[in-house]
Write a structure and sequence with these properties.
By secondary structure, the protein is mostly helical. Helix 1 crosses helix 19 and helix 4 crosses helix 13 (265-281). Helix content is 73%, strand content 5%. It has a three-stranded antiparallel beta sheet with strand order 4-1-5. It has a two-stranded antiparallel sheet with strand order 2-3. The two termini are 44 Å apart.
Length: 436
């Protein structure tokens, strides 16, 4: 990994992309510390420490700690993710949208634009909900005009984060939105170590419990790496073809089917979906209905309605996103076109059906493992005895998944440029031979 990073800084184009990525991440972290006008940030931090947990921790996780300070980036990437989920569901439901996505670049641009408009709607709803919540908690007691200013600031901050993520994807390295979440998690690690050290010194945390939590964390990290890199390889045989005096094909290869085809997307999507009911409940914070919804979606317990919904959504989005990015029909058609076949399976539709069945089984295994990793924070909270033990399963999975994906993209860029160098050298030699 460090060798790849060192090689990347030796190439001007990759170096420029890496520096651009670091610059965007710096701006994101800077915005996370700019307070929203009209809000007592110290009172907000105290309130968050006293009532935080569950959905609030997820919101704070996605915003990189900006929510606990109620900064201009408090909403983070959650509105954009919610809008993306809705748009992808609509594409699956309505064939016209699916055709727009597949057939033309203009259609894809329109869908992206509609996703941005949807982000504005979700940002406004969540900003109003957050403003109502801090008002009910006594953090904010301004006029209607002051409330409008807070909603406008939070909405503009969310759109700025969306723009930073898109710029990062276009001109940097890696997936922009995932990298912003990654940066927010990593930036809070030193604070977490300091907090744990303080709790040990004050006797609020047992050393043996901390040791058990660390062992569990190492197991989770190893499991996340295995999940991200695990593959089921389907053997493929290519028949020999005689074209003129040459023989083509005849070799054996394989189709790599990733166990976790969707990466960290199911975790992020499921968390974002469960944030929305909590936000709606803030509109009715003084009513029994609002209190019931907040209790219903309160995390922190292993056996709860929230945990059940979380597990179901993680498995669902594992299947959903795999169906979006993986097309067995195209794979079977390409294999048939070039004379490839899986032993014992007829080419064409039978091959497509076989790949689909295999993918469904490994996706179920990957989704269940993702769900287990997702509820690890609740287990660690029970072991350590406090929600302040920071590095839970969701954070580990996002950090490991984004780090591996970014390193793989850097290595792919390096490999492509090495091939370019080889081709240029080969072209130069060929030109010399022709001139001779």
């Amino acid at each position: 990994m460090f060798g790849s990073l060192g090689d990347a800084f030796k190439l001007p184009d990759l170096k420029r992309r890496l520096l651009f990525t670091l610059g965007i991440l710096f701006i994101f972290r800077l915005g996370a510390h700019i307070p929203t006008p009209g809000v007592d940030t110290a009172a907000m931090a105290n309130l968050f420490n006293s009532v935080g947990g569950g959905v609030m921790d997820f919101l704070n996780l996605f915003s990189g700690g900006a929510l606990s300070q109620f900064s201009i980036f408090s909403l983070g990437v959650a509105p954009y993710i919610n809008s993306s989920i809705v748009m992808q569901l609509l594409v699956v439901i309505f064939p016209a949208l699916e055709k727009m996505q597949k057939d033309s670049a203009d259609g894809r641009k329109k869908l992206i634009q509609w996703t941005r408009y949807g982000s504005i709607v979700f940002a406004v709803v969540q900003a109003v909900g957050m403003t109502a919540w801090i008002g009910s908690q006594g953090i904010f007691s301004g006029t209607l005009g002051d409330a409008f200013m807070i909603v406008t600031t939070l909405t503009a901050g969310s759109l700025a984060v969306m723009w930073l993520g898109e710029e990062l994807s276009d001109h940097g390295i890696g997936n922009g939105i995932s990298l912003l979440i990654f940066a927010g998690i990593v930036a809070r690690i030193p604070e977490a170590f300091i907090r744990v050290g303080t709790m040990l010194r004050l006797g609020e945390m047992n050393f043996l419990a901390l040791l058990a939590g660390l062992v569990l964390m190492i197991v989770v990290v190893a499991g996340c790496i295995l999940l991200q890199e695990g593959q089921r390889r389907l053997p493929v045989q290519y028949a020999k073809r005689v074209v003129g005096n040459k023989v083509y094909g005849g070799q054996s290869t394989f189709i790599p089917l990733k166990i976790n085809q969707a990466g960290v997307i199911p975790i992020i999507f499921a968390s974002s979906i469960l944030i929305f009911p909590y936000t709606i409940a803030n509109f009715f914070s003084d009513s029994a209905v609002g209190a019931f919804i907040r209790d219903l979606f309160a995390a922190g317990r292993i056996f709860s309605f929230y945990t059940l919904c979380y597990v179901v959504l993680v498995v669902f989005f594992s299947y959903f996103y795999t169906a979006v990015v993986f097309n067995p029909t195209d794979i079977a058609s390409n294999m048939k076109k070039y004379g490839g076949f899986i032993l014992g399976i007829r080419p064409g539709q039978p091959t497509s059906d076989y790949i689909s069945r295999v993918m469904e089984r490994i996706t179920m295994a990957g989704g269940i493992f993702l769900a287990i990793v997702a509820i690890i924070p609740n287990v660690m909270t029970s072991i350590v005895g406090t929600r302040s033990f920071y590095f839970g399963g969701t954070a580990v999975l996002i950090v490991v998944g984004v780090a591996l994906d970014t390193i793989n993209q850097i290595e792919a860029q390096l490999l492509m440029r090495h091939y370019d160098g080889i081709l240029k050298k080969s072209g130069g030699k060929a030109g010399s031979l022709l001139r001779m």
